[in-house]
Amino acid sequence: MSSPVEFLELLAREAAAVEFEGPLVAARAAGLPPDRLAELEQAKSVALRVRALLERRRRRETELSGLYDTVSDLAGLRDLDDVLRAIVHRARNLLGADVAYMTLNDDERGDTYMRVTDGSVSARFQRLRLPMGAGLGGLVAQSGAPYVTANYGEDARFHHTGEIDAGVGEEGLVAILGVPLRLGSTSIGVLYAANRSARPFVREEVALLVSLAAHAAVAIDTARLLTETRSALAELSAANTTIRAHSSSVERAAAAHDRMTALVLRGGGVEDVAAAVTEVLGGALLALDAEGRLLARVGEIDEPDRADIVEAVAASRTEGRSVRRSPLWYAAVVAGAENLGALVLRPDDELVDADQRILERAALVTALLLLFRRTVAEAEGRVRGELLDDLIARPLRDTDALRSRARRLGVDLDAPHVLVAVGDDAIAATGSARQRVLSWATTYASARGGLAAARDGRVVLMLPGLDAGGSARAVARDLSRVTGRPVTAGASGPSNGPAALAGTFHEADRCLTALGALGRAGQGASTAELGFVGLLLGTVGDRGETDVTQFLSATVGPVVDYDARRGTALVKTLEAYFGVGGSLARAAEQLHVHVNTVTQRLERVGQLLGADWQRPERALEVQLALRLHRLRAPAG
């Protein structure tokens, strides 16, 4: 027999709604009176309401559980793209929709664009951009209020555009629910759930998507802030790395500065500075003087072309700092307006600003060292020059004091020395050129344990050794390279003891004069090599070369000219004839010819010079002329 209790049993086993008609059907079949049927009908209505209430609570519990799970999932995400995909996927699942998607506002362009989709199959739909106020999403983004439509294509509430309708149509969407993503009073985008068939989204579903959107907006902002924080941390880390690198560079520069300062204080040289730079910066380095000559080399590095050095040093001087000519760095070594040279660095790694400052500071220290070295050399040169000037002066005073002064300079006056006099042709008109020659001579002599000085418009070198002629030729050759013009050098010696130096100097000076008289400017020779003719010519004065030329022309000129025209050997025959004391047979033997040939040649000489050429006074003149002729064009 049917009773209200049956409805409680149906509620207890969560029966379907259609099963609640069973007790009424059974009661009617049993013929219960109308009042009983009315009572059962009322009990059925109450039971169905209770069932609906319980169903709503279960669904709400499921939704709340889903929201809780969503919040929990979002809290564990850190990447913004992961957050957005999780939000859309969970929205689709919670609402049982065919498609879920999200658009975000673009403040720069003033519209909203598709950011992420779940369940979408249309590429066109996935690229949609919605102007504010256009379509359902544009209206939600503009107004900040939820909108729902059971059939979007037929809903006249929305401003339809061809692009939006085409995208929605291609995706096949019919029912659409859109709710705003809000941060405070600001809307940042729209979250959607959509079906491909008509569906009236109920109020609870709208509330559910609104709740999900609220959590999603917070998660999006959190992810954005986290991304910005990470970016800021990365920038801070990069800045910290830069600061550490800069600090390291500054410390390295300070250490290099202290080291180079210590080098200067303890009397270090350019080589020490070059070594310090390469130890700090790595790589290899060249130190060059103003003429591009090598002062120091550290590591494996080739010398650049002269033109490249000149250009780079000029640029460094103009800019006032080091310049790069890949792969080399150049720093000009200057003192005021004077160019003293350059440092050329090939680093192992790229140079930062602080590293460049180290190279530039090294160039400054190098300039100081070169100036100091020059000052010391000039002071020492003056001392050495004054000593040599006193040694070659007459009368010589206090030889013991002179020996003591020489010993302090590392010079032994009792050892054999040669004196070399350099001619006026080495000294240009300007004072700087004269000083340059004297500076070179001082350095040249000091390096060999000798002395140098300027005296009577000439430069004199006192060099230890026995070979006066070799020393003269070496000085003429090396100084010619420095001045860029031929240099004449006359030498004499060796001398023995300080008392002989003055006489040796005057012999060297006469030898220099004789070389000029013989037309041998730009050469070097000694008095021993010129013999008695050199001693004679050393006293002829300023017109010596002219007088020698006239003497040769008047004495043996016809014989010399005859040989030049005919290719004969009359001059050679005369030298052989006088050399063997006038013996025809011995002259022939020396010349490897027949005696008759010698006789015929001498007869020709008599025709050219006159019959009295063998008279004693004429013969002496001829022999002297032959000797002068030979000295004017020495062999080799």
From TrEMBL:
Pfam families: GAF, GGDEF_2, HTH_30. Residues 79-230 form the GAF domain. SUPFAM superfamilies: GAF domain-like. InterPro entries: CdaR-like_regulators, CdaR_GGDEF, GAF, GAF-like_dom_sf, PucR_C-HTH_dom, PucR_C-HTH_sf. It comes from the Bacteria. Belongs to the CdaR family. This is GAF domain-containing protein/sugar diacid utilization regulator. It comes from Micromonospora parathelypteridis.
